[in-house]
């Protein structure tokens, strides 16, 4: 059985990655990039470790403008997102829990 958590809207800006979700009992995560022009970089690290450094060559996923990324992953990782340009980008994320 999967429980959908509330949709969380936030703005990314600058060069510091933002942590998405709590990871508690997580089975998946949807991330929506609402910006019409900018990419959003996504990185993952083992739960409880420092935030990753995200760059054009050091990221796991890039979410295209007006697109959604679906990740099926456990609570053992923390997920971070960052604007590829450093400018403000609106995103929303939603966790699925088992």
Topology at a glance:
Blueprint: E1 3-4, E2 8-12, E3 18-20, E4 26-33, E5 40-46, E6 61-63, E7 68-71, E8 77-83, E9 89-97
Largest sheet: 5 strands, antiparallel
Task: Quickly count the domains.
Answer: 1
Please state the average pLDDT score. 92
- Quick one: how many beta strands? 9
Q: What would you call the structural class?
A: mainly beta
The parts where pLDDT drops under 50 for at least 5 residues are none
Terminal residue distance: 6 Å
CATH-defined topology: Jelly Rolls
Specify the overall morphology.
Answer: globular
Total number of helices:
0
Helix-strand string: EEEEEEEEE
CATH architecture: Sandwich
> What would you report as the Rg, rounded to the nearest angstrom?
13 Å
Helix content class: under 10%
CATH level-4 homologous superfamily: Jelly Rolls
Which terms summarize this structure?
single chain, 98 residues, mainly beta, Jelly Rolls, 5-stranded antiparallel sheet, 9 strands, 0% helix
Task: Provide a descriptive summary of the structure in words.
The chain has no helices and nine strands. The chain has 98 residues and is mainly beta. Strands 1, 2, 4, 7 and 9 form a five-stranded antiparallel β-sheet that branches. It starts with a strand and ends with a strand. 29% of the residues are buried.
Give a brief rundown of this model.
With 98 residues, this protein is mainly β. It has strands at residues 3-4, 8-12, 18-20, 26-33, 40-46, 61-63, 68-71, 77-83, 89-97. It has one domain: Jelly Rolls, CATH 2.60.120.
